[in-house]
Design a protein that fits this description.
mainly alpha; globular; single chain; three-stranded antiparallel beta sheet
């Protein structure tokens, strides 16, 4: 699978052991030296995931093709440490902002990342050139100053690259969502033959707060004690799995862990796996893959199919927010976790430790602060209300 951008393009090579390695090739399919050396020596040494490396290289490809279209020899510019002028930098940034597949511009976070990826690549090449300059050469300080200026200017004034603030959804939206994914419900927007699969997957996101890709990496052996009173879901990291032929392989980005799930979810998963997934007419070939969630062809379910499910929910189910997604359900699950922690009387340290385990974060992670905005706001409102009630009582004495 390739993406062509004028001359250079990114090709994802899949080795026999299942490992995926993105590479930059020219119009003839030949490997291009500088970007691939950078990928191996810099990105791979940092243990970047295949998808992350691919994002870096796609930005670099845009920059290289932009330079070729402008008659700019990037290698010569870097070797001479002239790098880019201000006008050329702004022109390059405009190119990095374009959405070449759909037209228009990419999201701010994507634009932000692309500019930083290209900045880091060109600076890496420039540093190699600087290292070849003699310490006694009077040009060395100027070369370093040029590089420092370029590193600042290339990313100056960019829109904030962070994700927009998200919150979980309220109880009414949750009820509408759970009703809409129930097989046979009038509000269910999915085809009848796939409603049981979709319910098991979507309820899994709602109950556990799993990331989108984590749910798609679940294998039958990861479902323990189904059906039964204490079912367990095992979440494991399995990068570059040889038995996963998906073009964009889902990834488990968090720590491995065993999650206790509700008997209700356990029954949904059991019914899907035993009664529906085995239907050769609906899911031909499903028996040949170990992954629990499969497509209509029986192949492991793709990330884009999950995106399509949520798009259909947003379009067809009244009350679904415009940003409704697996990540919003992850926020929602964290809100529900906070409420359950309050009900059990956990102190702040105990709640943090438990949440970090369930979400797959390290013991000292503060990631939970990003996922509990709605619950924090609700707590604050309750405190303010109690203060006001106490104030009113004091005035009435």
């Amino acid at each position: 699978m390739f993406e062509t951008n004028q001359g250079l393009r990114v090709k994802v090579v899949r080795f026999g052991g299942g490992e995926r390695c993105p590479a930059v090739v020219d119009a003839n399919g030949m490997l291009v030296h500088d970007p691939n050396v950078y990928a191996m020596l810099r990105l791979r040494s940092q243990e970047c995931a295949s998808n992350t490396m691919e994002a870096h290289l796609r930005a670099i490809v845009i920059a290289c093709n932009w330079a070729a279209s402008r008659g700019i020899d990037l290698r010569e510019r870097v070797a001479s440490l002239d790098l880019l002028s201000s006008a050329e930098m702004f022109d390059l940034r405009d190119s990095l902002r374009e959405n070449r597949r759909e037209g228009g511009v990419v999201a701010s976070a994507t634009y932000y990342n692309r500019c930083h990826f290209v900045r880091d690549y060109l600076a890496w090449l420039a540093r190699a050139a600087i290292q070849r300059i003699s310490v006694a050469d009077p040009k060395l300080p100027e070369a370093r100053q040029r590089l420092e200026w370029f590193e600042r200017a290339m990313v100056a004034g960019l829109p904030k690259g962070g994700s927009p603030e998200r919150e979980g959804v309220d109880e009414n939206v949750q009820l509408a969502f759970r009703e809409a994914i129930t097989p046979g419900s009038p509000s269910n927007p999915f085809q009848a033959g796939h409603q049981h699969r979709n319910q098991a997957l979507l309820h899994l996101y709602w109950e556990t707060g799993l990331r989108r890709g984590e749910a798609l990496k679940i294998k039958g052996e990861h479902l323990i004690g189904l059906p039964g009173p204490t079912p367990v879901l095992r979440v494991l990291r399995d990068p570059d799995a040889a038995d996963d032929a998906r073009r964009t392989q889902p990834a488990v980005k968090t720590l491995p862990r065993d999650l206790e799930i509700s008997p209700y979810l356990g029954n949904l998963l059991y019914d899907w796996v035993v009664k529906h997934r085995t239907d050769g007419k609906r899911y031909p070939g499903a028996k040949r893959t170990p992954y629990v969630f499969v497509s209509r062809s029986g192949q492991p379910l793709a990330l884009r199919t999950v995106n399509d499910m949520f798009e259909l929910l947003r379009e067809r189910v009244p009350g679904m927010p415009d940003n409704f997604s697996p990540h919003i359900l992850r926020h929602t699950s964290n809100d529900r976790f906070s409420e359950a922690s309050d009900a059990q009387g956990l102190n702040e340290a105990e709640e943090k430790q438990a949440r970090n385990y369930v979400m797959g974060w390290t013991k000292t992670s503060n990631q939970g602060d990003r996922y509990t905005r709605r619950h924090t706001r609700k707590r604050a409102a309750e405190v303010v209300q109690r203060m006001q009630e106490a104030s009113v009582k004091g005035q009435n004495r």
